Hints:
- The chain is α/β, with parallel strands linked by helices.
- The protein has helices spanning 2-34, 48-64, 77-89, 106-114, 140-154, 173-191, 217-226, 233-244, 259-270, 287-294, 306-321, 354-359, 365-370, and strands at residues 38-42, 68-72, 94-97, 118-122, 134-137, 161-165, 195-197, 250-255, 275-280, 300-304, 330-333, 338-343, 346-350.
Amino acid sequence: xxxxLALLLSMVLxxxxxxxxxxxDSAESEESADKVEVGIVLPTKDESxxxxxxxxxxxxxxxxxxxxEVKYSMGSTATELSNxxxxxERGIKVLVLCSPxxxxxxxxxxxxxxxxxxxxxxxxxxxxxDDVDYFVTFDSYEIGxxxxxxxxxxxxxxxxxxxxxxxxxxxxxxxxxxFAGAWSVLSNAVKGGQFSIxxxxxxxxxxxxxxxxxxxxxxxxxxxxxxxxKWNSDEAAKLAAANxxxxxxxxxxxxxxxxxxxxxxxxxxxxxxxVKSYVITGQDADLASLKAIQESRQTMTIRKDTGELADVTCxxxxxxxxxxxxxxxxxxxxxxxKVPAVGAGFAVVDAANLPDLISEGVFSQDEIDDAK
Length: 372
């Protein structure tokens, strides 16, 4: 009997040890499954552009064999910080961050750097901190130049064309770069009388002069705050309606920062009986704006291949995680340091070349037709 009890106790002990070991493996497996190597924090879900970026990142990183998670800040720096803290706790090695407020992202990137995480600014340069390692961009300054050049060419040989200027968000570094790029082209045209500024007197004193992103920072901020759309269609429409009161109209030129704002600004101008025609810029090649171009409601947009930008970023991530050397092509001054950067290309799209891009399969006519 004693032998039987001893044998039974031995079996129970062995079974309990086996169960304990199995439970430990399960917990460890769950903890491991919860970890991610790459954290991506994007500014908002409310713009189709960022949804496209999420899809591009998820596919590229999965194909490269890395675990990742995408979070959205929804325009809030507090949410952004919370997102970064959560990803850091989950063991990320690389943070890809596109901030809704480039001037207020310091706390988030500091949290990442304290944990030894490599920080990549994605599409928007985070300013005022040395806690960023790389910048991947479409080069907003050059995009701004392309928008300004488009207006310049459309009104070549004209005089005193009413010019209405709009910016993205005065809290976003891209807005500074975009406007400074456009102004580098439009400045002499304003001085020479080709355009007359209607809604931004703060920039008039810079006719014939460039606005340097660093040296003229305070001036640029003052200018941007008078024409600030916050990248929001409703804000843009309200601002446009206010700008049109008592101003010169007729055939007008409009510098709009992106497609979302361009469509609402264009609708506001179109509704004004004293506006005979307009040329308006945009960027992002939203399907809704491609439809607007076909219907002559928007004039141009800038196609930025977000898939290409995500691929460039993922290649950088791969190099970092594998201990390789990251090759960069330029530098951007964020006010504290010169951040090594890699760029991606872009192209102007308007009614002249959109049919070719559709026939080449870059865009689908069915998708454009279904766009809202």
